[in-house]
Amino acid sequence: MREAMPLIREQKGLDGKRKYYIIPEGEHTEIKYFKGIEANREELNINSLVEVRILTNDITEKGNSNPLLLINNFEKDLKCEKFEYYPNYDKVCFIVDRDCKSFTEEQFDEFVKTCKAKDYRAYITNPCFEFFLLMHSNDVFSLDRDEIKENPKVNANKRFLEKKVSEIFYCNPKSHMIFAKFKPYIRNAIENEKSFCEDISGLKKQVGSNVGLLLEELIGDNAIHRNDLLCVKK
Predict the structure, then answer these.
(1) Region of poorest pLDDT, from 11-25, 28-42, 179-193, 220-234
(2) How far is 137 from 169, CA to CA, in rounded Å?
(3) Least crowded by CB within 10 Å, which of 33, 46, 200, 221?
(4) What values do phi and psi take at 42, rounded to 5?
(5) Secondary structure element (H or E) that encloses residue 24, with its range
(6) Would residue 173 count as lying in a domain?
(7) What is the pLDDT of residues 134-167, one digit of tens each?
(8) Phi and psi at residue 48, in whole multiples of 5°?
(9) Close Cβ partners of 19 (under 8 Å, ≥ 6 residues apart)
(10) Residue 22 in contact with residue 74, Cβ under 8 Å?
(11) Domain count for the chain
(12) Is 228 helix (H, G, I), strand (E, B) or coil?
């Protein structure tokens, strides 16, 4: 696992900022999206006492869909002191696709169980992150839920949801992700997500996502954790 931007070793001790470590399963789309969130932090009203860091999967692990590897890689780098993490303060957020063809129900259960035990965050989209991107548009409600869940191939290289994102937002989310296409509609995505499953247990079988809950926490008025942030002892 490596950081999506150059890593700077911090001095020991809290710097007063809560770090959200964003660890996506995907190799392109999710990274571009959350780098866009961080790059537009002021416009999105992210609290100045919050730092968003994107960590990427080891190149040797790319293509392996078992999300437990994301946890293993994070903890491996943590032991190597590549970054500092304060369990009672910082947040570790794994961004994972549920696609039932990628990993089993048993692996899903073990992943969620491990995250809960270690106080990590599991943000899951069923079937894939492209569905969360579609929630930025109200056109998502015109799609058939069975077709969403199946996400069938429409040609040799593209599936149904990827094609819909390309049609609605005029960019290919896998090969040419353009965050600016989605930025004006982030709050719309947060609201639209509530019409689908957001419960972590339900996401094992139901279409939906809880990524919007993370964004709601990051870009809201921050009232829910502003006092907590201000009371940190260095």
Answers:
(1) 220-234
(2) 9
(3) 221
(4) -70, -45
(5) strand 18-24
(6) no
(7) 999 999 999 999 999 999 999 988 999 999 999 9
(8) -65, -15
(9) 51, 52, 53, 85, 90, 91
(10) no
(11) 1
(12) helix
Position 152 in a domain: no
CA distance 66 to 53: 22
For the beta carbon of residue 80, count every other beta carbon within 10 angstroms: 9
| Contact in structure between 219 and 186 (CB atoms under 8 Å) | yes
Domain of residue 96: give its range: 2-6+17-129+187-230
Min mean pLDDT across 12-16, 31-35, 94-98, 181-185 is at 12-16
Q: What is the pTM of this model?
A: 0.87
Number of CB atoms found within 10 A of residue 176's CB: 11
Q: Is it true that the peptide bond before 127 is cis, omega within 30 degrees of 0?
A: yes
**Given the DSSP bridges, would you call strands 208-209 and 91-97 parallel, antiparallel or unpaired?**
unpaired
Nearest to 74 by CA among 19, 126, 36: 19
Pair of tokens at residue 205: 């079988």
Q: CA-to-CA distance for 38 and 138, rounded, in angstroms?
A: 25
Question: Is the alpha carbon torsion for 27, 30, 36, 38 positive or negative?
Answer: negative
Question: Is position 34 within any domain?
Answer: yes
Residue among 50, 47, 85, 16 at smallest CA distance from 233: 16
Three-class SS of residue 131? helix
Domain assignment present for 166: no
Q: How far are the Cα atoms of 3, 5, 110, 113 from residue 130, in angstroms, in the given order?
A: 23, 24, 24, 25
